[in-house]
Specification:
The structure is a homodimer. Chain A is mainly α. Chain A has 15 helices and 2 strands. Chain A has a single domain, classed as Farnesyl Diphosphate Synthase (Orthogonal Bundle), CATH 1.10.600. In chain A, helix 9 crosses helix 10 and helix 10 packs parallel to helix 15. The longest helix of chain A has 28 residues.
């Protein structure tokens, strides 16, 4: 008989697989098609989006939306938009002038499957499409809600969010960086979009200040635990499992949580952050159980 | 004593210089700063934006807004956002994997002055910042107006607009392309954002359908006249005047309006489109005189 924790894990696995299937189905329908010579950029957008991935950010949107009784289709549209932004960032980060990666999720990266120019444009178009999607009346009947989502997505994704984090990451190669520096780097590079994913459900549900703040605090700690685990997997993971080269960070002379803390302390830090993330959800009832599971998942995942 | 047409031209020159100065002043204030290592991406954004340029799109926003009595500061914010999108497209188009240009407006392009990775990120951040700017409550008190601007900007800039046009441009190098094909290419690559610039004033002013359509029709013809003139300048212009290498299109084996129509017919076509653009403004009074002048300017400019 499976233990209770295994049950929980199976429930989480099923829930995230359902969201992945739903968001991929929606993206397949809403991503634009074209007959003309511009079809190449749409093919590349679709290739990048449909390459798989956990769809963790969409899961966070859908689960946070469920806390406030939000229409699941509305949540899925915002989830799809966030996945477009996440995917664009991967396409650009993989470029030869950035991380120069040939593989992503076990498949050739967009600039390898197409070419560099198409990869730049597909990333640009995915970012733009996210705003097109959110601003559509189908996402929410109230313009106030749609514009708040646009604004928070822009703040999370731009120079003061994700792009700023990537800039810090690039400039800090081979540099001394301390725990505060790397925490800030990751808060911008991955944390800002994860925080938006968690807060988006609250925005859609017009939730008051307190649960919003709780979700942001949850996202902050969970996102950092996620990133520390990424660094641990980079050191310990098997290339075949995670579908990309491992040990890359050390090779690139990049400071990571593991290079600063060591494996054991990094693992303990991730566990502490995961617990802390779960505590931020104390004001929610059992509806938040899958978010609690997500905080456990981020530190136990193998890929 | 100057002729009437010279008077008009001086009035137009002064008006567009005023908008350029205003929009640069505003961008200088609103573009974000940073102290951390991400400052590099903000420096690159500022470098790209402040490299000069006619600020023709901002001028179109401000003049279309004036037709409907829109608050000039609101118009200027939207103008600044459109200039950010235009500038991002130039930064990415200049990359080695795209047009591979070393000079832009007589200065090193962003990837030459900084590096390729920073140029990709600065473009990404400029695009994102445009949405941040428009979605801010300071742009318009009504969420309905802000979200309509976001949506139209996304549609004009993405795969079905500007980015799609750039994709067609890249795939059509060395290909046979006819007048219909190149018109469609330019309608997407440059026309869509110019049309949004002209319509933005009407959106801000909550104008009815008829003047909106007139402005779109004006933008369509004027934008095409602008592009045909670009092709003429590429053949005839002096490199020193336009601040970039000339004859590039022919060298790259790109079809242009001039390669299809020849110089004389291209010139006649631009003149016809300019006149037609002016006729679309017949429902406006003398408040539209500077837009009429703009349609003359696009075919007589030297740079």
């Amino acid at each position: 008989m499976p233990s209770k924790s295994t049950d929980f894990s199976a429930e989480f696995d099923a829930a995230i697989a359902k969201v992945a299937s739903d968001v991929e189905g929606m993206l397949d329908v809403i991503l634009p098609h074209a007959d003309g010579p511009e079809a190449r950029v749409f093919d590349a957008m679709r290739y990048a989006i449909m390459a798989g991935g956990k769809r963790f950010r969409p899961f966070l949107v859908c689960e946070s939306a469920r806390l406030f009784g939000v229409d699941p289709v509305a949540a899925l549209r915002v989830a799809a938009a966030i996945e477009c932004v996440h995917t664009y960032s991967l396409v650009h980060d993989d470029l030869p002038c950035m991380d120069d990666d040939d593989l992503r999720r076990g498949q050739p990266t967009v600039h390898r499957a197409f070419d560099e120019a198409t990869a730049v444009l597909a990333g640009d178009a995915l970012l733009t499409f996210a705003f097109e999607l959110i601003s559509d009346r189908d996402t929410h009947q109230l313009a106030e809600v749609r514009i708040e989502l646009v604004r928070r997505l822009a703040l999370a994704s731009g120079g003061q969010g994700m792009v700023g984090g990537q800039m810090i990451d690039l400039t800090s190669e081979g540099q001394q960086i301390d725990m505060g520096g790397i925490t800030r780097l990751q808060r911008l590079k991955t944390g800002a979009l994860i925080a938006f994913a968690c807060e988006a459900g609250a925005v859609l549900g017009r939730a008051p200040r307190e649960p919003r703040h709780a979700l942001r605090a949850y996202a902050h700690d969970m996102g950092l635990a996620y990133q520390i685990t990424d660094d641990l997997l980079d050191v310990e993971g098997e290339a075949a499992l995670i579908g990309k080269a491992t040990g890359k960070d050390a090779h690139a002379g990049k400071a990571t949580f593991v290079s600063i803390l060591g494996v054991e302390r990094a693992r303990a830090q991730a566990a502490m952050l995961s617990e802390q993330a779960i505590q931020h959800l104390d004001l929610f009832d059992e509806k938040a159980d899958l978010l609690r599971q997500a905080a456990r998942f981020v530190i136990t995942r193998r890929t």
